[in-house]
Write a structure and sequence with these properties.
The protein is an alpha+beta fold. It is built from 2 helices and 6 strands. The protein has a single domain, classed as Aminopeptidase (3-Layer(aba) Sandwich), CATH 3.40.630.30.
């Protein structure tokens, strides 16, 4: 993402295993696929394929949500392809609710 960290509302967490980068979760106020309104930052998560399904994504997501609770945000949003069953289930399990759907893409939000 261009100049990530240059805005006051940029937040990113990374996950490491034995000192190696496993993945990252970040938020930014941006008008992109998961946009719901100007006050809600969008969430993105990326994990290396060999670390998926081992709890790293859950830990990143929960850590980021915990970090953001009590901050200036009331909710965060994301866009997910509901055919990506592991990701879709992760978000449902963590109280994300669908606010808009188009074909296989769902825009989801979670209240903080």
């Amino acid at each position: 993402m261009k100049k990530f960290g240059s805005r006051n509302d940029d937040v990113c967490l990374v996950s490491l295993s034995k000192g190696n980068l496993v993945g990252a979760a970040w938020i930014r106020k941006i008008r992109s696929y998961g946009y719901v309104d100007a006050d809600t930052p969008e969430l993105s998560i990326a994990l290396k394929a060999e670390f998926r399904g081992q709890g790293y994504g859950t830990n990143l997501l929960n850590s980021l949500i915990d970090l953001l609770k009590g901050k200036k945000y009331k909710k965060i949003s994301l866009s997910v392809d509901n055919r990506n069953i592991p990701a879709y289930k992760l978000y449902l399990k963590n109280n994300f609710k669908t606010v808009r759907k188009c074909d296989h893409t769902e825009i989801m939000v979670v209240n903080l």
